[in-house]
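*** Query protein ***
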Amino acid sequence: MSLDITEILDNWPFRHDEIVARRIMGDDGKEKVQLRLDLGLLQMEVDGRPDGRRPHGHESYFAFQQSRLQAFRERTGTEEGFVLTDKECEELRREAFQYYHRYVAFSALNDYERLIRDTDRNLELLEFLWNYAPPDERWGAEQFRPYLIMMNTRGKVLMSLEAKDFTAALLQIRTGIRLLEEFFRKHGHEDAIPECQEIIALRKWAVEINEKRPQTLMERLRNELAEAVQNEDYERAAQLRDQLRMWEALNKHE
């Protein structure tokens, strides 16, 4: 069997202007996801750790460290004194990079559920490192939080838009912006908020969604009322005002 993958790469060209990913069925009968890179490709499991390994019998190295923390709590009755070594932090960051490649692939494949799952997982890992890594090791991973928040928010918004739930999509954007602002305030960089590209992109996206989403009945009534008043059609305005009050009362009652 030849180990040369030139034919595979020739038949699946890399593109500099987009993320190139695909699903395949592995020889083991399990689905895999592949991510095309400029110098080759990555093949990853769709569930569990991307490389398919189980460090220390756990789903991931992060899960193993979480089990160590739980054992420490049970033994000592506190988390105080639980500190990761530099080597353990490096291993956690290396594993997080595997999940990064996979959620980028899921983003390209519109697999929003797994995109959310893997970004949630890496966000949880960042919190773990911030709480238990030595101070000089914290920022090595924390600097990636804005991008992770953005990707996690993107997955949630796109899933809501797919279900035509525009209200949920806008709420998720608002939550993403709040988390990004909290990140900068936490680290004493509030002045960076106006220039944050992730926040700028999310605000622009919210405007686009608002412009394209169908109006609710109450929104339509308010707009028609404003138009009737502007046109001095007071009889029509009175009718619309009565309808609006009725719907507002019904919604308030619900």
Notes: The longest helix spans residues 86-108. Strands lie at 21-25, 31-37, 40-45. The chain has a mean pLDDT of 91.
